[in-house]
Amino acid sequence: MKDTKDYKIATKLAHLSSRPEEYNGLVNTPVHRASTIIIKDFDGFQNCFQAPYRYGREGTPSSKAFEQAVATLDNAYNAIATSSGLAAIISVLNAYARPGKTLLLPDNFYGFSRGYCQETLAEFGVNCKYYTPMIDEEDLRAMIDDSVSLIYLESPGSLTYEVQDIGMFVKVAQEFNIPTACDNSWATPVNFKPLDHGIDISIISATKYISGHSDAMLGVVSCKDKETYERVLKTVRQSGNCPGSEEVYFGLRGLRTLDVRLARHAEAGLKLARWLQSHDAVKTVLHPALEGSAGHENWKKYFDGASGVFAVVLHEMDCKKIEKFLNNLNIFQMGFSWGGYESLIFPEQLSDWRISKPWDGDGYLMRVHAGLENMDDLQADLEQALNFLK
Ligand SMILES: Cc1ncc(COP(=O)(O)O)c(C=O)c1O
Questions:
Q1: Is residue 361 part of a domain?
Q2: Which of 205, 233, 254 is the last residue of a domain?
Q3: Which one of 8, 245, 290, 345 has the fewest CB atoms closer than 10 angstroms to its CB?
């Protein structure tokens, strides 16, 4: 298909970056493995910086195919594939971090990137300031001064799933000429396109829903314009941050079914979330698509759908009972990286670094990822295991 631009997302996902005419009729762009890329002659050597491919670390037709597909979905100038979602986040932060500069970050920021800010960037003299995810305009303005070089969003944010007022952030950031970046791993471009709402950089852990089969580590950064792209690309290239050949292939393959899988994850997640809301063992359910959850109105305003990850706060605090509950689940398993076909549950503690808590008092937080199993089986599995909390 020559041009996918006028088609709906499902058609785009099925056809983006498929070039049978270039690959002897193969519908999938093959895995290109490369470190050395031969330069034909001396003239080629002198102009190698203009060549499409120069060094395996800087990309191959496989990584380009993935990047172009994501850039098209995000309505971006271009996209950059990275070795993981965390590597994508760190590259964006590094692009704007300078001694004496300030990064404004959400309190529900993905934990490992927060560690990098607290422990590494701080040592380099970069100020990392945290705002509560549901901050209002007045308080956001109060945090801005000349040193702010990036406003970062994550919507919904890690573990507590608040959705921020994207439009408000963009309005304020543009007024002060501060670039914005948003982690969009939860929604993916199927359900939210940050750049369409004025965000400058969209970051996705493609390890999650895009690859979708729990077997690849991959990140991608979409940039709204050439200047932003070149700035982020520099930090990606200079840090040797490059995805594996199989990973970019899996990323592109995952895009083909992304909308179908996401719809199913979302349906199962919401069904479980609603049912859990009325369960005696549950204190609160943190899910952006639930009425009354933090940022629900923003979710309705900016997003086209949900995904399958959310959190449940249990009344129970006794570790022994929590252990029984978790060890008696049959389908739900414990694992860090969500977004695959299999259901996961994970006990979480909000780190001491967090400045806000979205619920009163204590309670054990469980991150739930609804996989692609039968929804009744999933509910029955949780139900029998929750009995161990009685
Ligand atoms: C919201 C979010 N962003 C980024 C990441 C990091 O992605 P990766 O595991 O690909 O490094 C994660 C991982 O769990 C995440 O939950």
A1: yes
A2: 254
A3: 8
Q: Is residue 3 part of a domain?
A: no
Q: How many domains does the chain have?
A: 2
What's the domain range around 66? 9-254
Q: What are the contacts of 377-380 at 24+ separation with CB within 8 A? A: 377/331, 378/268, 378/272, 378/331, 378/332, 378/343, 379/271, 379/272, 379/275
Q: What Cα–Cα distance (Å) separates residue 374 from each residue in 300, 329, 333, 378?
A: 27, 15, 15, 6
Q: Which ligand 1 atom sits closest to the C-alpha of 154?
A: 1
Instruction: Ligand 1 pocket test: pick from 109, 208, 214, 217 the residue with the most ligand atoms within 8 Å of its Cβ.
Output: 208
pLDDT tens-digit map of 361-372: 577 899 999 999
Threshold 0.85, pTM exceeds: yes
Among residues 64, 74, 110, 354, the one annotated as catalytic is 110
> Last residue of a domain, which of 254, 286, 315?
254
Question: Quick one: average pLDDT of 96-106?
Answer: 98
